[in-house]
Amino acid sequence: MAENNATVETTESTETTAPAVEEKGYHKTDANGNKHIIVDPITRIEGHLRIEAVIDKDNRIVDAFSSSTMFRGIETIVKNRDPRDVGLMTMRICGVCTGTHYQRSIEAVEDAFNITIPKNARLVRNLIQGALYMHDHLVHFYHLHALDFVDVVAATKADPKATAVEAQKWADMAGHAPAISGVADFKAIQDRIIKFVKEGRLGIFGNGYWGNNAYKLTPEQNLIGVAHYLKALDIQRDLAKMQAIFGGKNPHPQSIVVGGVTCVQDIQNPARIALFKQILKEGTAFIKGAYLPDIYMAGTAYAKEATDGSQAFHATKHKGTLGKEIGGAGGGLLSYMAYGDFRLDDTGFYKAESFFKRGIVLDGDLSKIHEIDESKITEDVTHSWYEGTGAPEHPYDGTTNPKYTGLEKRDDGYAYLKTDEKYSWIKSPLYDGRKVEVGPLARMVVNYVSGDERTKKYVENFLKRSGLPITVLFSTVGRTAGRAIETEMIADAMFDWVDELAKNVASGDLSTWQDFDFDEVSADSKGRGMAEAPRGALGHWMRIKDGKVSNFQAIVPSTWNAGPRGPNGEIGAYEAALIGTKVENPEEPLEIIRTIHSFDPCIACAVHVVDTKGKELAVYKVDPTCAF
Amino acid sequence: MSNNKEESVKKLFTTQSASVNTNRGESYYAELYAKCQKRLDELKQLKPLNNRMDFLESIEEEGLDRRDFLKWASATTAMLMLPASFTPLVAEAAVLMNRVPVIWMELQDCAGNSEALLRSDGPQIDEIILDIISLEFHETLQAASGHQAEKQMEEAIEHFKGKYLLFVEGSVPLGMEGYYGTIGAKAETFVDHLKRVSKDAAAVVAVGSCATYGGIPAAAPNPTDAVGVMDIVKGKPLINIPACPANPSNMVGVILHYVLTGNVPELDSLLRPKFAFGYRIHDNCERRAHFDAGEYVEEWGDEGAKNNFCLYKVGCKGPMTFNNCSIIRYNEGVNWPIGVGRGCIGCSEPDFWDKYAYERPMANANIKAPTGGVEKSVDEFGLGLLTAAGIGIGIHAAASYVAGKKEERGEA
Ligand code: SF4
Ligand code: SF4
User: Fold this and answer.
1) For residue B341, which of A262, B113, B214, B404 is within the disulfide window of CB 3.0 to 4.6 Å?
2) Top-tier CATH class for B281-408
3) Quick one: fold of B21-277?
């Protein structure tokens, strides 16, 4: 197991020669010619994130640090409250993956109280969660990620006629009817964009990286991307309604309670079920006619870097069972973990068969699935702005006591992370002392290696139709493809789930809530809600005493992926995925944000670029106001 | 409680709160109409900030039905509590909205309000970002990151000095000298950032309950000393649009109102626009008849739940909450928390996490003591009255429950 505990190899620190540093605020060049870049804010994510990256003379990222720059203390806030109320509060951890924290907290309580919810409640929760996946993945791809692939300005040069032909080509490859196919449609959209671009002020498209060589699509392909970006704004509004039908509203639905759900009226109403199905149908058509074809298009355009082992963090070390080296640009850790999601029967938590499986795949070894031993999940705070107890803590006994040590502020006001010390509000979670990646790609790999037939069918269909090798999946673009494949898989399955619900209700089962004796079960208990958020494995751990929450900890997907280094320098998924990547222009962090976006961050974070030794040059002055 | 008292409490809860005067007389509206028209004429003289195509032209090009647009305009007119004769002006104001540059700032937030903005249906979000407002900075949506993003914001502040609307999402942490939240390569604290960017704004709009009152980060014990925007920004027109998250119709309503009149809408003492926060949920609730009849959901999933009974006893705080979701609902009117059988958690009121967000009626709440602060949520109902009402309503509920039991046993 030790091999993948990869720390960044830091060469011995050279004598500190007077650094010939070219100062320029957000970036500087050190004596070795390496550029240190701060990217803060990382936009098109949920939350506040900073990335600092160190880029060498060949424009290769040699080190990277991920830092969340915002803290709210929700774990502290829910302590001493009635456990039945905690779900509503923890939902406010994130308004993008809305509803998923809600379910995890409620499940933690139900696990503690040993409650098995009625079938209707299970199905409604699956539909609420499934609607979230569809909505969230679509918005992520088009509105948070696509502008890393699609050059909006270049779309103005497209030939609408050729665009229609191109759109048909990729839809054919995916095996579906294109969402937008008419020449006139593309022309109208292009005119709208041309007008917009000509006016000069680009609003949210302003100051983008348009024209950067890392954009690899043709003008026609860019126009397809822009057209789908706009159409997807429409579609997502409808997809959100699916959550509202059974959840009351979106964002932040409200119908889930400990013991079941409250929407008994809505599940009895055939008009509601019909509306749900109609939106599901339209949404699925767009997913198949736009989202997937666009993934085929982007996968093809970016296949080269996706399989370029020289840009990978791990490529030389990790061989899969495919007889090939896996890991390309952005591949990162190649160790994956999933908790599983969507219970398919009513045997109860952690017993029921599930749509997404639970397990771990290590070091890109696709021949072996490891079972999760929950006691091996810990969090470390060596590099996080919290007071530690010395050893990594299991979340049941985790503590959250802030200890902010600040950034190093320079004379010009720019501030860099103290990467040798604490540098993030995110803790560093470990499984058996090592870092793993979570998310759609992790779910896909875990399902695939577990032998799940459905997943195999969808993945193999994608590979066959695209003609791409399986190795393409272990990269930035592969992470993005995995998310799309999963979206299609869930959308298809939801038709069955909603029918199952309608059928069950029609059979006369209107039960939506399981009664329990609160005083008895809440005297002294503990439970965990471990399943998946759209962004990956999500766990809530709760201790309950005398009817109140006595301890609560959440480890969210982005904690796993975006966390800082572990106690022995173990590197996390974001940081690993950046290392090795070539950038076209260090002034424009396009490749950095593209790789970071492929994880779909849900934090407030940022990226800085630092030197090859992982150390700041000795030029910063500690600003006394931020050195706590 | 004497029968008399009980009756008076019941009366309080069965009459409309009507804190908004929707009929101010003809001369008032005639004057307002003239004022709005003048304002819109002036706006028309201005070159659009970004020289965008006309909204009407664009909806036609998009193949949107003009009738739909007018339908939307008349619904919005009603939402803004203006007489129907204002509909053409509201439609025109929507067309002229592209004169308004908007900077959207995210602090201690969950991006829930940004997501809510994406759900806007009238006008739709693609129109909003391409044709209607000039969205100059929005972290969750904008293309540029890092220093390019910072530059975009600086340029917008410079270019639209004194003209832009600043929307703020999320609370402001004051603890630890503000370092619970920083942004940008200079790691500027949220509080400094807010002060700097609000300085040159025409008006500041706090969206969501975090930005309004501190919201979830400020719930007890408020680990980061989080506060709302109104505690920081002084000497500027300030509008609060609370709820968790805020309803996108109310966000658009505020912008429209601003375009239409050049002023902020009429506000209550918590700086909430009265057009949206003038009524209690309870006043317009679809389950109200059951409340009045004493028919309650007693526990989740029971017969009452199956029959849409009133949710008071399972924790509905509609009687204490001022908001318009009972009228406009969410997600294009698809549903809302009371529709879905859960009840209202009071999310547009100050300190609702500590006071209201639990599934029991107020009287037997198993919660922490509220963290203090003065109750000023309601202009017309003071704290004392509301609390009394809460107890009174509890008694009303209990009495009807007993009555119900008696009926079951055939005693009545
Ligand atoms: S008010 Fe609610 S939706 Fe808005 S930022 Fe706060 S928690 Fe999120
Ligand atoms: S459900 Fe709530 S708002 Fe509606 S009548 Fe009952 S108490 Fe009032």
Assistant:
1) A262
2) few secondary structures
3) Rossmann fold (3.40.50)
Q: Kindly report the backbone phi and psi dihedral angles of residue A340, in degrees, each rounded to the nearest multiple of 5, phi listed first.
A: 90, 155
A393-403 tens-digit pLDDT: 888 887 767 78
Two structure tokens written together for B91: 């439609």
> Which segments of B134-270 does DSSP mark as H helices, in order?
146-159, 190-199, 208-213, 248-261
What is the distance in angstroms between the Cα of B340 and the nearest Cα belonging to chain A? 5
- Return the DSSP state at A15: P
Residues in chain B: 412
CA distance A537 to A331: 18
Which residue has the least CA distance to atom 5 on ligand 2? B288
Q: What is the SS3 assignment for A487? A: helix
Contact (CB, 8 A) for A615 and A419:
yes
**Which bin fits A406, alpha (ψ -120 to 50), beta or left (φ > 0)?**
left
In order, the DSSP letters of A542-591 are EEEETTEEEEEEEE-HHHHHH----TT-B--HHHHHHTT-B-S-TTS-HH
For A239, the token pair is 């997809």
Enumerate the domain spans of chain B. 21-277, 281-408
Q: Is A46 a catalytic site residue? A: yes
Q: Which of A44, A104, A535, A543 is catalytic?
A: A535
Per-residue pLDDT, B8: 44
Q: Is the pTM of this model over 0.90?
A: no
Q: Which pLDDT band, with edges at 50, 70 and 90, does B52 fall under? A: very low
* Interior/surface letters B307-328, b for 16+ CB within 10 angstroms, e for the rest: ebbbbbbbbbbbbbbbbbbbbb
Contacts of A407 in chain B (CB under 8 A): 182, 187
- Considering the segment(s) A10-115+303-474+516-627 as one domain, its CATH architecture is Orthogonal Bundle (1.10)
End-to-end CA distance of chain A: 38
Give CA–CA dist A219/A159, Å, rounded.
8
